[in-house]
Specification:
binds zinc ion, alpha+beta
Length: 181
């Protein structure tokens, strides 16, 4: 079990009361921190600091939500697996309708329980952030954990040359032996 930190990010904050909207337009601001990703149990993102602006427009029969998310996330580097900061900026549009769980054929429309009228945006925002992370994300040149990249390179080299290993001693193994004390 993970030890729970004292200050927990309150996901209730991310619930938008669509049904209770008093005006046709509304703006909300959210701040995402490391706790947000921890509480969501987000496996792809280790943490982050982002600001989210949401503008909600109430139309006849639906709600249009525009999200602007900007900041950085902490993700493992592809090359050395150490944490790195990845800048993120993403704009997303979402249409929500009040209804029942059964009519959810349309992927682009989020159905909000008409009795409750609350749209929980926490996971939606997480998905916007996760989708905005470039597939390849690495440290700036020279900023990688060099000990780790070296070992990983040696390991992949070892896999490739496993068939030849019996025939000759790979000089990289000698180098690795020297590293291990
Ligand atoms: Zn790296």
């Amino acid at each position: 079990m993970q030890a729970k930190s004292v200050v927990m990010c309150d996901l209730e904050t991310f619930k938008i009361d669509l049904k209770g909207m008093k005006t046709d337009e509304q703006s909300l601001e959210f701040d995402l921190n490391d706790e947000f990703f921890k509480v969501l149990d987000a496996s792809e993102v280790n943490g982050g600091a982002l600001h989210v602006s949401v503008s909600i427009r109430k139309a006849s029969g639906f709600y249009e939500l525009l999200f602007h998310t900007e900041g950085t996330v902490t993700v493992p580097c592809d090359l050395c697996l150490d944490d790195m900061e990845q800048p993120i900026m993403t704009d997303n549009r979402l249409v929500a309708k009040l209804g029942t769980e059964t009519n959810t054929e349309d992927d682009d429309v989020v159905i909000v329980d008409e009795n409750e009228g609350m749209l929980d945006t926490s996971w939606l925002i997480y998905e916007f952030v996760a989708l905005a992370i470039p597939i390849k994300h690495v440290h700036a040149p020279g900023k990688c954990n060099s000990a780790m990249t070296q070992k990983l390179e040696e390991l992949s080299g070892a896999v490739r040359s496993s068939e030849e290993a019996a025939k000759e001693i790979d000089p990289r193994w000698e180098a690795l032996k020297k590293l291990k004390v």
